[in-house]
Amino acid sequence: MMIWERFSYRINKFDLYVFSIVFLSISPIFSYHTRIGALGFVILWGSIRIFKNPSEYVLVTKNDLVLLLYAFCIFSLSLSTDIYYAQLYGLNTFSFLLFPCFFIYGYVVSKTLSFDDFATRFEKIVVFLSVVSLCIYLFVSVFPSTINYFFTYEYEGFSAKTVILLNVLIPDGQVLFRNAGVASEPGLYQLILNLALHFRLLRLKKLDLASTALIMSIVTTDSTVGIFICFVILCFNLSLRLIFMLAPVVIMSFSIIVDLFFYHLEYKLFGSVAFNGRMLPILNLIDLAAEYPLGMGSVLYTHYLEILNIGGWDSYSQLYIRYGIQGLLFGVICLFILMKESILLFFIVSVTLLSQNVFFIPFLVVLYFYAINAVKVRWGK
Known about the structure:
Elements: H1 3-7, H2 13-26, H3 32-52, H4 62-89, H5 95-112, H6 115-142, E1 151-155, E2 158-162, E3 167-169, H7 186-204, H8 209-221, H9 224-237, H10 240-252, H11 254-267, H12 273-289, H13 297-307, H14 315-341, H15 343-352, H16 362-372
Antiparallel strand pairs: 1-2, 2-3
Helix pairs in contact: 2-3, 2-5, 2-6, 3-5, 4-13, 4-14, 5-16, 6-7, 6-8, 7-8, 7-9, 7-15, 9-15, 12-14, 14-15, 14-16
């Protein structure tokens, strides 16, 4: 069998559907307005498909209803807060619309695709994106001057370069040689890579070229969280025989691994400049959030973000500051539901949430709904 025949994959409308989940969720080149408009169109398409063929889908289960009603309550309370503060500080963000759209989008996708279908399409689309992004990343690493020919975009107050399938961050005018792929930053990119790697290893039970490409992409993100998650995924999914086969490679690379470990320990973990740079804004945010136990909404948060040193780059503090105690409880419930169905998926998601504000990202919302309906998020297990 020829290589092309082994790796070819027919693209249809459902592939484009899942591709939109990934791209609209993590690409920084779209404004809030564009995302909301595109998400509205895709939600409408999915909804029409469901209502045209109602016998093929279970529209709302009792478990769906619980999750949807809880989400409706926290979004409605936050929206009323945003309407009030928008009159005082102006409409400074559209995230109060984007996050509910993300949630509805994830729900609609969970109704139109089975888990196996979604996971297979997600995995193969991410493999394609990772291979293309990795090739471009390696090329610009060898020929860095080519970055000057990339398109420039603004995101979250800083400039970056892009060729759509690879984004290059340029903080303080210095090129950051970390593979961010199609995402806004490497820490977010590692999430889709690790999810795809997990899905692929569960399906195939072995390493192949696509899995290797995903692992290489994860390593080039230089994400502490991403590399750690990747290591755990490999330990969980690979047989002892294969792990022993990989041992010589690990031994030969031992000095590189040690250097990498101490680099992350010194520059990115506890006590480092990077860690303190993230931790101090979070501590300031927690102090501020204590005054708003029911949440301050997105408008007031954005107002304070512009004048105070607050951040909250993780999902947990963002759930609390925007949606209050009830929002944080909602997050804990969703993670607990995910944990009941798949310990490893719970680990991948919960650890990433420590450093990324992605709780309502559509491809994670899809997993919450699969899990709450007791859909086994493991192939046949």
